[in-house]
Amino acid sequence: MTDHILKIRNSVIQHGPSNDRVYLMKLASGDHLEVPAQVETIAKENGYSKIFSKIPSSSIGHFQEMGHVEEAHVPGLYDGEETACFMGKFLSTERSKERYPDEIEGVISAALSKLGSSKEVELLEDEECSICAEDDVEEMAKIYSQVFPSYPFPIHEPAYLLRTMDENLIYFGIRKSGKLVALSSCEMDVEHSNVEMTDFATLPEFRGRGYSYHLLDRMEKKMREMFIITAYTIARARSYGINTVFSRNSYVYAGTLVNNTNISGGIESMNVWYKRLDQM
pTM of the predicted model, to two decimals? Predict the structure, then answer.
């Protein structure tokens, strides 16, 4: 079952049994006193085991008083000035325990060892990278369904892809001989000049060709054209590949979100990385 996105006052949350959590995606100005309690009520009424919140640092005090802890932080996420704090409150002991601490530490160390050692990937003559259009959503949904048995958002549904294209997402794709083989997206918060680099997927038979590096480079160029200041990603903590992609591209490790997201068939921890796009 797909988790639902809805508004509480002027803030935006996602909740449901798939991720077994409430995710406070956007905390509106003036909502920081009322919304945390409402979010906790929703979590307890539904028996969820985690509350995950992305909030401005100016609101952290009230969340900490309610038992939330900072798992990661991204300086300048809001307008290039205010830090974003990624907060977690665990409603079950099991959810709070990291099952693979040594493996995740190894991934982070390996990725950091490649920090800033950029890798340029040139496409072949029969390959091209472009922004996806409405006509692509059926093909895109098939790729996401094949790559991810589960995902925190319904990217396997063409209607969702179409709707988000009309809202705040730009999808990028690589085609080989006309066939779509790799995807990614920019989920933009234009109001606060930040973007999440997300939804990377490559068909299994086309992996190992460095498509993610090429996609990320293209995404960054587009975001700079739109005067977006800060980029970040929430990457699977046990994936050497995707963490290395961001580290090589000079993204800074910002923290790990423990047992945060239902992706590829189960709840996984996620690493946060960020980069200022206005600083070369």
Answer: 0.96
